[in-house]
């Protein structure tokens, strides 16, 4: 059985349309690649001041001998002192502080993990914060600003 003339014309028209669409998409893709090549600059072609805008240098560990410290309210607080303060907390409160401040968990999430209510977590966390503050105030070295 041979297809009639009208069906054959429809198939030819559709094939021509598909080829046109594919041809136009290929042309658009090549044009986009050409436009990107014009705008792109290699790192070796950048001026020194332009290159410096692309990165930053972290100087935190530059002087590994010196321990970073913070001065608050005339007291010098070092990371070792803060560690001692956290270790001085009871185990249960220490877990809550570490989960909240260092793991970024909410009171609800901590409560679910420890099987206690959210309000209990909040109370223990805030009272632990007060204990830490008191410990740091008592044990921090006096810092004299020149």
TrEMBL record:
Matching InterPro entries: RNA_pol_sigma-70-like (IPR039425), RNA_pol_sigma-70_dom (IPR014284), RNA_pol_sigma70_r4_t2 (IPR013249), RNA_pol_sigma_r3/r4-like (IPR013324), WH-like_DNA-bd_sf (IPR036388)
Q: Which Pfam families match?
A: Sigma70_r4_2
Q: Does the keyword Transcription regulation apply?
A: yes
Gene3D superfamilies the record matches: Winged helix-like DNA-binding domain superfamily/Winged helix DNA-binding domain (1.10.10.10)
Keywords, ordered alphabetically? Sigma factor, Transcription, Transcription regulation
Domain RNA polymerase sigma factor 70 region 4 type stretches: 81-124
Q: Which interval of the chain is the signal sequence?
A: none
For molecular function, the Gene Ontology terms on record are: DNA binding; sigma factor activity
Question: Which GO BP terms, alphabetically?
Answer: DNA-templated transcription initiation
Answer yes or no on keyword Transcription regulation: yes
Write down what this protein is called. RNA polymerase sigma factor FliA
> What species was this sequence derived from?
Roseburia intestinalis L1-82
What gene codes for this chain? fliA_2
């Amino acid at each position: 059985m041979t297809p009639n003339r009208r069906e054959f014309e429809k198939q030819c028209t559709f094939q021509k349309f598909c080829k046109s669409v594919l041809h136009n998409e290929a042309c658009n893709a090549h044009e986009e690649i050409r436009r990107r090549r014009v705008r792109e600059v290699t790192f070796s072609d950048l001026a020194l001041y332009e290159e410096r805008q692309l990165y930053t240098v972290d100087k935190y560990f530059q002087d590994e001998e010196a321990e970073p410290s913070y001065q608050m309210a005339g007291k010098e607080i070092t990371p070792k002192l803060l560690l001692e303060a956290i270790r001085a907390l009871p185990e249960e409160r220490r877990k809550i502080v570490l989960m909240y401040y260092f793991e970024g968990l909410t009171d609800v999430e901590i409560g679910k993990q420890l099987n206690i209510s959210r309000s209990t977590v909040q109370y223990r966390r805030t009272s632990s914060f007060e204990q830490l503050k008191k410990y740091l105030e008592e044990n921090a070295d006096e810092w004299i600003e020149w």
